[in-house]
Specification:
two-stranded parallel ribbon; single chain; mainly alpha; 6% strand; 32% helix; globular
């Protein structure tokens, strides 16, 4: 409803409560919701497609990626956990960094756990100016991304970046980066 009222950021904030990694769980991955509607003889609703379109609308705004990134870490619509919890001292290894693996890592980090992720593919680091993290793990300043199109590339010309799983085949919201 918010999106139809011209409020894509509000719509994305609501989506991000349950699906903060919407960039990696776009309409090409899972249509179980649609299948469930068909099996129940209801009119199917393409929720993944609606979420992807909402994300794309926000990403097209100036600093849209920064808005999405913020909503994955601090979301006033998330009553239970609006911001990451304090460190728990627990350390978790996530094996496999496809969409399920990096979504799990995101939720574990938000719960305050230290997370290390490994994948069969080599994971290439983002440039410090985009990530805000040096190779040694220390923090550094970064340039806010004004235009997400400045870092996108056609999937058929893309070099594998080491995201793993189906993410490497463009079965995500193409052209987005995760933090």
């Amino acid at each position: 409803m918010l999106k139809t009222q011209g409020l894509p950021i509000g719509a994305l904030a609501i989506i991000a409560v349950e699906n903060p990694m919407v960039a990696g769980t776009g309409h090409r991955i899972c249509n179980d919701c649609m299948k469930a509607c068909i099996f129940q003889k209801q009119e199917p609703v393409n929720i993944p497609q609606a979420e992807t379109r909402t994300l794309k609308d926000v990403l097209e705004l100036p600093f849209g990626f920064e808005i999405y990134s913020l909503l994955t870490r601090w979301n006033p619509m998330d009553i239970a956990r609006p911001y990451p919890r304090a460190a728990t001292g627990r350390k978790v290894l996530v094996v496999g960094l496809g969409p399920a693996g990096y979504t799990l890592a995101h939720h574990l980090l938000s719960e305050g756990h230290t997370v290390v992720g490994i994948d069969g593919l080599k994971i290439e680091p983002l440039p410090e100016s985009l990530a805000g993290v040096r190779l040694d793990g220390s923090r550094t300043g970064f340039e806010p991304l004004r235009d997400v199109q400045s870092i996108t590339e056609p999937l058929d010309q893309r070099v594998l970046a080491g995201f793993g799983g189906v993410a490497e085949y463009g079965i995500t919201c193409a052209g987005t980066r995760t933090t």
